[in-house]
Amino acid sequence: MNPAETPIALGADHAGVTLKDSLRAALEAAGHPVLDFGTHGDGSVDYPDFAHQVARAVTEGQASFGVLVCGTGIGMSIAANRHPAIRAVVVHNTTEARLTRAHNDANVACFGARTTGPEVVLDSLSAFLTTPYEGGRHARRVAKITPHPVQEA
């Protein structure tokens, strides 16, 4: 993982807090600054609260990327994708991590603590953070992700 000057925003619910803490340690050990929005314990919390905090940090430029962890990664991705500038993806392996960055310019990686092993998540996060967006033929498609208002004739 190549360190970046802009922090990486982290968030998790109670199902993902242990994995989030492991990811934070790995990121910091690699020299990445981290914004940890929580949660910080195993008490039940609502995942959208953390997804929105991470999405805002990425949207406002406080973080270069976001990383969200819940039981499956699915709820976090749904909540984060409510923000127009966010392209959050559930990642299960390094191939998905590389392709979603290269082809989709994804800016938030979501992981399932109950569905993906910690070693795979660490490898996938490294691939996500180090793979550049290719642009080119993909740019037209990425631009179409956010719908434009319908123009009345």
Automatic annotation (TrEMBL):
Active-site residues are C70, H103
In short, the EC number is 5.3.1.6
Species per Swiss-Prot/TrEMBL record: Teichococcus oryzae
Q: Which UniProt keywords apply?
A: Isomerase
Q: Name one GO biological process term.
A: carbohydrate metabolic process
The record, for PANTHER family, names: DNA DAMAGE-REPAIR_TOLERATION PROTEIN DRT102, RIBOSE-5-PHOSPHATE ISOMERASE B
Report the family membership: Belongs to the LacAB/RpiB family.
Which positions are annotated as binding D-ribulose 5-phosphate? D13, H14, G71, T72, G73, I74, G75, N104, R114, R137, R141
Name the record gives this protein: Ribose 5-phosphate isomerase B
One Pfam family named in its UniProt record: LacAB_rpiB
| An example Gene Ontology molecular-function term | ribose-5-phosphate isomerase activity
